[in-house]
Automatic annotation (TrEMBL):
It comes from the Bacteria. Residues 28-176 form the N-acetylmuramoyl-L-alanine amidase domain. InterPro entries: Amidase/PGRP_sf, Amidase_domain, SH3-like_bac-type. The lineage of its organism: Bacteria, Pseudomonadati, Bacteroidota, Sphingobacteriia, Sphingobacteriales. GO terms for molecular function: N-acetylmuramoyl-L-alanine amidase activity. Pfam families: Amidase_2, SH3_3. It comes from Pedobacter endophyticus. This is Amidase. Residues 219-267 form the SH3b domain. One of its GO terms (biological process) is peptidoglycan catabolic process.
Amino acid sequence: MQQQGKFILMNLSEFEDYMHNLQIYFTRKINHLQHHHTHVPSYKNFDGKNHFARLAAMERYHVQNNLGQIAQHYTTFPDGQIAVCRSLSIIPAGIKRHNTGGICIENIGNFDLGHDVMTNAQRESIIKLTALLCDKFNLEPSLNSIIYHHWFRQTDGVRDDAGGKRILENHKTCPGTNFFGGNTVLDFQTYFLPGVQRTMSFLKTHKEPVLMKGRVSVSQLNVRKGPSKSFQKIEAIMKNTLVSIYETKNNWYRIDKAKWVYAEYISVERQSKAYQR
Ligand SMILES: [Zn+2]
């Protein structure tokens, strides 16, 4: 994991941990994810180590276009790395008149037919990122919860996806006429959606059941490697942080893999064995 300014760059497994630990404080309701390709920069502008330079250049361009800051929440790179860019608490600048409730994902490359051929690493990251976000925000993957820029008219932002037929005029090709086999709704249903659904069911079956949830009731709570004060302290979490509890032992709660806190300092919010994180 690397950070420069507000940009955080992670490989896929780091990103998975990051999403797992991400606390959501904002009240903005998330109802869809948007997929875009950058077109420029494309693969020829990426040299394997200039992630931050590319992010800074995109932000400069977006600021010049009066967007205030970088337009997208997440950026995926040809090497499969993922950058956190814009705060999720604010709406993106992705699709004209269609940003409320959106999370904007820009995938670096020009995925129009005859241009960049997406790497396997980037494919895997795009599918996993989409599945993790659907899971985090309780979105059932569909034509409405995951959208391509191409399905919206450029002039007025109205959705006009032609029922899966190829659209020629008045629409951007974004995220590319060869993005996961094509940019129509039929291509999405055939080539993109099944991968997201498979990944989501994999995530669900590998998820440990949550016994209960609670909030930290002291200003700073020590997190230890095991269920007693003799175990090493690994971090401290702040008051009011919401934690999931997976196991209890001798008045200690396990809140993650090998992360334990003293139970007296957690006020339990809900008791249900069926509760899933
Ligand atoms: Zn776009």
